[in-house]
Amino acid sequence: MEYVTLSNGVKMPKLGFGVFQISKEECEKCVLDAIKAGYRHIDTAQSYFNEEEVGNAISKCGIPREELFITTKVWIDNYGYENAKQSVLKSMDKLKTNYIDLVLLHQPFSDYYGAYHALQNLYEEGKIRAIGVSNFSPDRLADIAAFNKIAPHVNQVEANPLHQQVNAQENMLKRGVQMEAWAPFGEGKSNMFKNPVLKEIADKYDKSVAQVILRWLMQRNIVALAKSTHTERIKENFEIFDFQLSDEDMNKITALDTKSSLFFDHQTPETVDRFVNMIEERKGRI
Ligand code: NAP
Predict the structure, then answer these.
(1) Based on C-alpha coordinates, what's the Rg of the chain?
(2) Which end of the chain, N or C, is more open, meaning fewer C-beta atoms within 10 Å of its C-beta?
(3) Angle at CA 174, nearest 5°, toward 168 and 178?
(4) pLDDT in tens, 32-41
(5) Whose CA is nearest to atom 48 of ligand 1?
(6) E strands, 33-99, in order
(7) 165 Cβ neighbours under 8 A, 6+ residues apart
(8) How far is the first Cα of the chain from the last one, in angstroms, to the nearest whole number?
């Protein structure tokens, strides 16, 4: 495993296992498979509806808690100071742990300032080892870093070969914020696993396209989260620490950047509407 050191000195495993869109029924087994394969970093969220199952796996896996790195994210409907604070304590219960390694604000909408103050407070009380945000564009990140006592330690954003976030990463570096990549495979959109450039590079190293993508993120010093419900793929995605991409191959991947999201742009009014609807749909389930 490779690690990054956050601006507060906390060590974070560079590769994590993501549990978005893993059902309650499958989640505990998938996390146990991942831990068995060697992952020590698990990424969940209040809005994934599987924190309890992640907690079951944490308590059953036999690995000491301090060797694991657990992230969760506060859902928008739990924003505002008091709600956010209570929701993190509830997440801690579900995860069956008395501290969380990293808590992120899931989206830059509604009262995220109040919620961020709650994270700062929990951090100062020692209940959270690092705090951060997710899906914050460079301007929102600059704002929250400038007007708070503690700048976010991490910003988790979409990043994959077709949407590389080079400028966003430069902005994070300037502010001491660690970049973390969600959807490193773009969930397979735009035929990512069959991309001819990635396939040619993968064949050259006798690796898969998924492994090449994760290796490319490691070499850009980005923490990456990979999700799979298949044991073989979970193992495959972990086998990325025994090879190095050459500068030439890194540059070939750089040339694939389209500079636009494979999902949606976070900075449009339609996206705000989409999240307002999502809050309604998820009410009472979190
Ligand atoms: P992803 O990791 O880019 O892609 C997952 C997809 O790739 C699944 O369909 C999976 O299929 C497939 N896959 C995985 N490994 C493979 C392999 N070796 N070969 C072929 N197919 C493979 O997408 P993601 O789950 O959206 O993102 C990863 C994690 O990032 C999430 O789980 C979550 O923790 C985080 N995330 C955060 C946000 C945010 O807003 N902060 C948003 C999205 C995701 P199978 O499962 O069928 O194997």
Answers:
(1) 18
(2) N
(3) 65
(4) 999 999 999 9
(5) 228
(6) 41-43, 69-74
(7) 157, 158, 159, 179, 181
(8) 33
| 202 Cβ closer than 6 Å to some ligand 1 atom | no
The answer to whether the CB of 261 is under 6 A from ligand 1 is: no
Question: What residues contact residue 247 under an 8 Å CB cut-off, 6+ apart?
Answer: none
Output the CA–CA distances (angstroms, integers) from residue 26 to 32, 35, 47, 253, in the order listed: 10, 15, 16, 33
pLDDT in tens, the chain (286 residues): 999 999 999 999 999 999 999 999 999 999 999 999 999 999 999 999 999 999 999 999 999 999 999 999 999 999 999 999 999 999 999 999 999 999 999 999 999 999 999 999 999 999 999 999 999 999 999 999 999 999 999 999 999 999 999 999 999 999 999 999 999 999 999 999 999 999 999 999 999 999 999 999 999 999 999 999 999 999 999 999 999 999 999 999 999 999 999 999 999 999 999 999 999 999 988 8
18 lines ligand 1 (CB under 6 A): yes
Burial of 270 (0-12, 13-18, 19+ CB in 10 A): exposed
The identity of residue 60, as a single letter, is K
| Residue bearing tokens 């060797």 | 67
How is 160-228 classified by DSSP, letter by letter? Answer: BTTB--HHHHHHHHHTTPEEEEE-TTGGGGGGGGG-HHHHHHHHHHT--HHHHHHHHHHHTT-EEEE--
Q: Closest residue (by CA) to atom 45 of ligand 1?
A: 228
DSSP secondary structure letter of residue 251: H
Residues 125, 103 contacting (CB under 8 angstroms): no
**Beta carbons within 10 angstroms of residue 118's beta carbon:** 26
Is residue 214 within 8 A of residue 236, CB to CB? The reply is: no
pTM: 0.98
